[in-house]
């Protein structure tokens, strides 16, 4: 039924139904159980039809461990365990579900377990469940926001599979995302609890190396490396296998009668086991003001159909579609009908009929049940027909959505929703499945049934052939013949796990033979993603039926299919050429797959002809030949086992005496007995610095007891807020009418610019330039879709959101002269739309040579043999895309006024407490001294909360001060993504040259590069971002003649902002593109070009720094490169890859070795400062407050290690509370990877001050006096036990000004060129990555087979945290360069409306790497003997530098594509843009299938070899 057109329902007439339903046995209050206890009736009555389970748990029950990450079931942060008694099976069904989608009333007579019910830190001994303990011990949490959901997912797996295997585990985590860790430590923690936990390193022989009787003689690589690691005490080595083995003994034993694995069953309430029958439920919300108002849960089919026959209702089972409609499309359904599982006709599991010809399943049977049952059927060797029927359904379903979704979603909902990109609908249609459609006969108990083929069920877009009152009762699938009858599923998405398909297909074929050849008797081809509905391809089928089964037949059919499924270039959803290419590529895969299985069938028939006599009449023909290289085209990830992920981490062992770092130069020495005693105590207890200490908040993360902004207990009278945002841009904002919104009961106010002015506040804000506003004033041009116009405040969040939607906004026409809305970099260049103040340039060397480059023709690749001395010149362009931060915790603020309205306390999720304080104060006309900003922890930041969180806090502060009531503003995921900005998209244009050397190599000569970034509608930090891109546009290479220019483009996108790497990755990516272009033109292996042109010690950079120890720290990139090249046998692996590629026509592998250097320091000198406040208490414990913020990077843990070492106490005795502007004032945003460098030093400064004061007291006590005794004595002696530490980076090691001209007396030739402008970086953090990938040329799907990273982090303060940062940064960089694709309404995406709007505004449309995307082998090594004298304890910054190493996946993919193009269109240069999405990978292959699709879509205007996929840059 269509949703109600009315948005406000004030009175619910269904209240009158209650007496009648009560007489029919309906309960009117749900029976709910949570964490082993029955929910009191008073609370259960608050469960309403329009309420999700997550809302009930968090707001009614006060259980905030389950997090709201996206509200669409796409991130898994809200995962809970739903347990239900199954009387027929006499067992409990445990299922993980998304609480953000599941209606609370659907949990009627079920038991819900949240993360709080799994384990708690409140119980000192044994409080943590082993799943939680393993996650803590193995460093599986960083920011911790995703952790509760992951814990519950693992807990659920072990609830159902007490002896879970690694294989089962790897199928189970597809519904959870993590943005911080890179997944490897989570995999390790999870695998440690599986039945088949490994016993350390295992060689190819299958024996663990350390148990091998021939260990001393064995020369296999695995054994040699393992022995070296074992013998080398200087190196700590740990692997996935080691961790699994570590937990095998302690956790897999069942030493008592009650095992931790039985906890879910033991917690399950006995009351639910004794229920004789499911109780029907009716809940009516008498005054629902939005969404659904009546919930009906019937328990019999006839009762349900009687309710449906009354009309005006919507059937919901899993609520996975309706929940999205209600949340994002604001659909309203007066009645929701939820069938109880007791309706066996609807929930029937897959069942084979007596004749064994049909498989039947109920329309409401959970997809996970169908998946697992079909998997079991497929494994039955004695029924080949059933196996062939069930295997395709199993394979498609295991990749459908997520485990949490499949546990509640059903086939009936999938069919009736009629999504044009459904996975199962095309498969069922191709299998000739039929539906039983049932309705009640005139409202009585008699039922009317009819059948309809799935292929005929879809009438038009989102419309199906259901008559009024009908429901889908069951699905029947014909069983295939055991031979010569084949069905295959196909799909391709942006990401393999939990993603909506781009194109999906089911294909079935039946062959017959006349003894001479095989011919096609019947065929059915069904597609999703190619039309407004699931469609068949009858013309293509007609071209196949009756024809010989041969490649030529399918090639002709492919031509027909391109015509039959032709798409216009501007088709909704875009990707027209790719979608058409996928359709014909699936057909190619189909032919090859059938051919492969046909060979197997022929072999089976010949071996036992009698068994197949009824299926094969007459003589048997020989099938067409299948070349070995062609067999690679049969690869289909749907059917393949998910990879086994593993990794190894190596790092230097902690030194007994910590490395001497910058503190020995910059801080006053403390040569005292107190300091000596502290150092001795630290050494005795094991110096905390250098140890792999677990994250101090890890246990709280894993129990859900870590509080984030949205979890803070609300002060009395707190109101909830929702921003009022513009829905278009370019026109004038004329007025805003809030009358309709204010008419809604419970709405307290709509606040805007006039209210800010009434407070005496300033409306302007901005981190560098004050070019933004808190609220857009009427009369001004709307600069971006989603600009903040006002803020709606109400008693509940739902009412605030409703009020915001009821604000009427009037827009005027666009000003004269603004004909085109500028969205992209190309738009900006065409319109000359720049932030001119951001334009900077650096040059060195022969400028005249650089000026002449555009006049020099490019060297034609492959035109002839190059001779020593020849100059090779290239030019081109390169684009890298934007990237959404996708921190799991969205932006949020709680503003609490006090002392009437004179003081404000702001609790927020921000990297910049002082910036927040400054602008909350200015917006409300409040002195900064009366505004306190407190920040406990963030659920991720990555730069996205450095500046963009500030405007939201300011808007909430205006409302709070005006109303003199606390106001809480938590952005929705959609709004957060639309308005908070992203990583900057970049475009570069370059001219470069190199000279051929005597040894056949090439020496870099020149590079002239222009960088353009898309800054959006406000400057924010775009200027400094471009500056850092310029600093890093040299990569690791020495260009003697170098010029780089950068400028920020002004567009209508949301203001873009800081993101891990801060422009550095974009600059490096452009440089590496140039290097690969030059290598191709010079006909030199790219590895050789990179290595031979790396900076050497003593070389200078284009910004005036000298490569070497005194100026920039040790230069370790060449050493790490050489080690990886040797240890990983890169040369041999390239030969192996070449051999693999020659033997696989449709699969190619690629490898890259990629270096990085990343400068550490703020280039704005004033920002290189920080303070810390240290309190020593009389019990010997220490409290540290500092100016940095914790977002998962482990800053607080490292600071605690520094303080613990200084005082000689265990790290458990040191604590960092929150970051607060009333403790440490005037702080710098936590960014630039500088926080440990800054606050570690500031904390150490404060500690040493206190130690100096303790010296006289220490002398009066015994030599073995504890810190507690010393502190107590000092306090009695009136010694100050608090100190404020402060640190600034030395003037000569930071700061750079592009605008400084060369002084007249500059000693040219003695000092590096441009060094007069400053010294931008204190040192470089460096690394090298080697990555190997495999690409499916027919689909664009890729796998990262292996990544090995070596990183110079100095002397690590905490190796585990540093490795976690490396792996997380790598995975984020991999996502940026391959999967993550941001789309706006622009010239390439005209189907997105309005122009300038962001389309990828949630996990449904924007994909970050999932568990299945990480390298299958992921090894990280921290370089040893890499002391860094320029930072605290000789450490190095680590948050951002490894990010670019993730782009090694991109370059490896490019290497594979080059191999494919070499076999086809040739080895000429092509611009491969970032990200390398599945679309770009497939279309860059430029084979005949792709080229024909391109020519068809472009009407012959574009050739396949030069095609570029659409993109928003």
Terminal CA distance reads 40 Å
Uncertain regions spanning at least 5 consecutive residues: 1-10, 199-203
Strand content: 15-25%
Roughly what is the average pLDDT, rounded to an integer? 93
Q: Specify the number of helices.
A: 47
Q: Choose one word for the global shape.
A: globular
> Structural class, judged by helices and strands?
alpha+beta
Radius of gyration: 33 Å
Percent range of helical residues = 25-40%
Number of strands: 47
What can be said about the biggest beta sheet?
8 strands, mixed
Q: Looking across the biggest beta sheet, what order are the strands in?
A: 25-28-23-35-32-33-34-43
What does this protein structure show overall?
It is a single chain. The protein starts with 17 loop residues before the first helix and ends in a 16-residue tail after the last helix. 31% of the residues lie in helices and 20% in strands. The longest helix is centred in the middle third of the chain and has 32 residues. It is of the alpha+beta class and 1513 residues long. An eight-stranded mixed beta sheet has the order 25-28-23-35-32-33-34-43, sandwiched between helices. Strand 37, helix 35 and strand 38 form a beta-alpha-beta unit. It is globular and about 95 Å long. The chain is built from 47 helices and 47 strands. The N terminus is likely disordered.
């Amino acid at each position: 039924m269509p949703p109600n057109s009315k948005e406000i329902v004030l009175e619910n007439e269904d209240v009158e139904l209650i007496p009648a339903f009560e007489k029919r046995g309906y309960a009117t209050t749900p029976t709910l159980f949570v964490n082993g206890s029955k929910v009191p009736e008073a609370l259960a009555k608050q469960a309403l039809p329009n309420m999700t389970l997550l809302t009930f748990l968090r707001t009614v029950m006060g259980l905030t461990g389950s997090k709201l990450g996206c509200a669409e079931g796409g991130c898994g942060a809200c995962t809970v365990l739903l347990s239900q008694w199954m009387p027929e099976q006499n067992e409990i069904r445990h299922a993980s579900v998304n609480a953000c989608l599941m209606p609370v009333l659907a949990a009627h007579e079920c038991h819900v377990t949240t993360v709080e019910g799994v384990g708690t830190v409140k119980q000192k001994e044994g409080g943590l469940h082993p799943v939680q303990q393993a996650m803590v011990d193995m460093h599986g949490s960083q920011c911790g926001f995703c952790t509760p959901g992951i814990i519950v997912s693992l807990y659920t797996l072990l609830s159902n599979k007490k002896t879970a295997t690694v294989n089962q585990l790897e199928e189970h985590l597809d519904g959870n995302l993590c943005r911080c860790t890179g997944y490897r430590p989570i995999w390790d923690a999870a695998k440690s609890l599986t039945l088949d936990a490994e016993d350390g390193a295992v060689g190819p022989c299958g024996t663990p190396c350390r148990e091998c009787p021939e260990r001393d003689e064995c020369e296999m690589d695995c054994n040699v490396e393992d022995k070296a690691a074992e013998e080398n005490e200087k190196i700590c080595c740990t692997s996935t296998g080691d961790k699994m083995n570590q937990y095998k003994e302690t956790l897999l034993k069942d030493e008592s009668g009650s095992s931790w694995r039985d906890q879910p069953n033991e917690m399950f309430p006995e009351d639910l086991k004794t229920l004789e029958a499911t109780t029907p439920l009716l809940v009516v919300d008498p005054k629902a003001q939005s969404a659904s108002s009546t919930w009906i849960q019937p328990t019999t089919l006839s009762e349900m159909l009687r309710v449906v026959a009354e009309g005006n209702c919507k059937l919901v089972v899993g609520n996975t579609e309706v929940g999205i409609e209600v949340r994002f499309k604001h659909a309203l359904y007066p009645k929701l009908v939820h069938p109880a599982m007791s309706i066996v006709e609807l929930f029937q599991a897959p069942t084979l009929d007596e004749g064994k010809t049909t498989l039947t399943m109920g329309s409401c049977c959970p997809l996970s049940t169908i998946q697992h049952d079909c998997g079991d059927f497929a494994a039955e060797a004695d029924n080949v027909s059933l196996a062939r029927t069930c295997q395709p359904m199993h394979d498609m379903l295991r990749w459908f959505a997520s485990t949490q979704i499949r546990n509640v979603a059903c086939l009936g909902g999938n069919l009736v929703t009629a999504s044009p990109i459904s996975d199962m609908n095309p498969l069922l249609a191709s299998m000739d499945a039929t539906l039983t459609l049932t309705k009640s006969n005139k409202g009585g108990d008699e039922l009317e049934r009819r059948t309809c083929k799935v292929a005929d069920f879809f009438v038009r877009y989102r419309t199906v052939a259901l008559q009024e009152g009908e429901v889908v009762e069951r699905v029947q699938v014909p069983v295939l013949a055991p031979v010569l009858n084949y069905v295959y599923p196909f799909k391709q998405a942006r990401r393999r796990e939990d993603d909506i398909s781009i194109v999906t297909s089911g294909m079935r074929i039946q062959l017959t033979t006349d003894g001479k050849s095989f011919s096609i008797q019947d065929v059915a081809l069904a597609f999703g993603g190619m039309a407004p509905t699931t469609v068949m391809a009858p013309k293509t089928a007609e071209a196949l039926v009756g024809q010989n089964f041969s490649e030529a037949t399918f090639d002709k059919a492919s031509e027909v299919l391109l015509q039959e499924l032709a798409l216009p270039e501007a088709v909704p959803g875009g990707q027209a050429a790719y979608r058409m290419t996928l359709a014909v590529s699936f057909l190619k895969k189909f032919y090859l797959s059938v051919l492969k299985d046909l060979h197997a069938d022929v072999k089976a028939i010949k071996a036992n002809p009698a068994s197949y006599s009824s299926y094969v009449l007459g003589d048997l023909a020989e099938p067409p030949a299948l070349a070995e290289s062609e067999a690679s085209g049969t690869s289909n990830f749907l059917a393949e086992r998910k990879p086994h992920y593993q990794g190894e981490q190596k790092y230097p062992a902690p030194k007994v005496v910590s490395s001497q770092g910058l503190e020995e130069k910059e801080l006053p020495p403390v040569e005292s007995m107190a300091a000596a005693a502290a150092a001795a105590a630290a050494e005795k207890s094991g110096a905390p610095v250098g140890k792999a200490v677990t994250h101090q908040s890890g246990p709280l993360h894993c129990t859900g007891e870590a509080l984030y902004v949205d979890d803070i207990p609300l002060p009395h009278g707190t109101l909830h807020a929702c921003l009022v945002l513009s829905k278009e841009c370019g026109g004038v904002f004329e007025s805003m009418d809030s009358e309709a919104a204010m008419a809604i009961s419970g709405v307290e106010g709509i606040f805007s610019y006039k209210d800010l002015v009434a407070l005496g506040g300033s409306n302007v804000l901005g981190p560098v330039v004050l070019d933004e506003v808190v609220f857009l004033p009427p009369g001004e041009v709307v600069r971006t879709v989603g600009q903040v116009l006002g803020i709606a405040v109400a008693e509940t969040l739902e009412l605030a959101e409703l009020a915001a939607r009821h604000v009427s906004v009037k827009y005027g026409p666009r000003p004269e002269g603004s004909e085109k809305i500028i969205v992209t970099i190309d738009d900006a260049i065409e319109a000359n739309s720049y932030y001119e103040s951001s334009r900077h340039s650096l040059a060195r060397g022969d400028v005249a040579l650089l000026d002449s480059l555009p006049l020099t023709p490019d060297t034609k690749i492959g035109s002839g043999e190059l001779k020593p001395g020849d100059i090779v010149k290239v030019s081109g362009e390169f684009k890298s895309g934007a990237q959404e931060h996708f921190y799991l915790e969205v932006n949020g603020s709680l503003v609490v006024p006090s002392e009437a309205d004179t003081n404000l306390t702001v609790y927020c999720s921000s990297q910049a407490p002082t910036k927040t304080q400054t602008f909350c104060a200015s917006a409300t006309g409040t002195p900064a001294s009366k505004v306190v900003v407190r920040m406990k922890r963030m659920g991720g930041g990555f730069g996205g909360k450095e500046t963009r969180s500030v405007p939201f806090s300011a808007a909430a502060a205006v409302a709070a001060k005006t109303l003199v009531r606390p106001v809480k503003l938590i952005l929705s995921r959609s709004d957060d993504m639309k308005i908070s900005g992203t990583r900057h998209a970049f475009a570069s244009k370059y001219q470069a040259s190199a000279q051929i050397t005597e040894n056949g190599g090439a020496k870099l000569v020149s590079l002239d590069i222009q960088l353009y970034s898309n800054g959006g509608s406000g400057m924010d930090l775009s200027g400094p971002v471009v500056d850092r891109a310029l600093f890093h546009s040299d990569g690791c290479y020495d260009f003697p003649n170098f010029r780089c220019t950068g400028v920020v483009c002004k567009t209508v996108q949301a203001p873009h902002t800081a993101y891990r790497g801060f422009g550095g990755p974009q600059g490096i990516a452009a440089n590496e593109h140039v290097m690969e272009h030059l290598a191709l033109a010079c006909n030199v292996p790219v590895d050789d070009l990179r290595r031979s042109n790396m900076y050497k010690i003593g070389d200078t950079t284009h910004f005036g720094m000298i490569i070497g120890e005194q100026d920039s720290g040790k230069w370790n990139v060449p050493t790490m490169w050489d080690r990886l090249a040797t240890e990983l046998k890169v040369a041999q692996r390239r030969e192996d890859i070449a051999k693999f590629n020659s033997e696989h026509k449709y699969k190619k592998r690629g490898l890259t070795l990629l270096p990085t250097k990343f400068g550490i320091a703020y280039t704005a000198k004033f920002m290189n400062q920080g303070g810390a406040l240290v309190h020593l208490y009389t019990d010997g414990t220490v409290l540290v407050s500092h100016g940095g913020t914790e977002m998962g990077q482990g800053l607080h843990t490292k600071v605690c290690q520094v303080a613990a070492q200084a005082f000689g106490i265990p790290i458990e005795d040191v604590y960092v509370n929150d970051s607060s502007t009333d403790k440490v004032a005037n702080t710098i945003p936590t960014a630039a990877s500088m926080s440990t460098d800054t606050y570690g030093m500031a904390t150490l400064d404060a500690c040493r001050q206190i130690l100096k004061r303790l010296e006289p007291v220490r002398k009066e006590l015994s030599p073995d006096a504890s810190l507690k005794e010393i502190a107590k004595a000092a306090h009695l002696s009136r010694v100050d036990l608090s100190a404020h530490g402060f640190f600034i980076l030395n003037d000569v090691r930071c700061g750079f000004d592009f605008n400084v001209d060369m002084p007249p007396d500059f000693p040219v030739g003695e000092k590096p060129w441009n060094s007069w402008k400053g010294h931008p970086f204190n040192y470089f953090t460096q690394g090298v990555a080697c990555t190997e990938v495999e690409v499916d040329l027919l689909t664009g799907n890729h796998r990262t087979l292996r990544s090995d990273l070596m990183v110079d982090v100095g002397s690590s303060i905490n190796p585990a945290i540093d490795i976690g940062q490396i792996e997380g940064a790598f995975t984020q960089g991999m996502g940026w360069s391959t999967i993550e694709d941001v789309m706006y309404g622009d010239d390439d995406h005209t189907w997105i409306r309005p122009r300038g709007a962001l389309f990828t505004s949630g996990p449904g449309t924007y994909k970050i790497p999932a568990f299945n995307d990480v390298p299958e082998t992921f090894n990280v090594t921290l370089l040893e003997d890499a002391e860094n004298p320029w930072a605290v304890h000789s450490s190095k910054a680590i948050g951002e530098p490894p990010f670019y190493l993730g782009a090694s996946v991109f370059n490896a993919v490019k290497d594979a594509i080059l191999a494919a193009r070499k076999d086809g269109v040739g080895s000429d240069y092509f611009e491969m843009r970032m990200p390398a999405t599945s679309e770009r990978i497939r279309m860059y292959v430029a084979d005949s299938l792709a080229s024909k699709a391109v020519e068809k879509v472009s009407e012959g205007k574009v050739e396949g070899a030069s095609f570029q996929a659409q993109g928003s840059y």
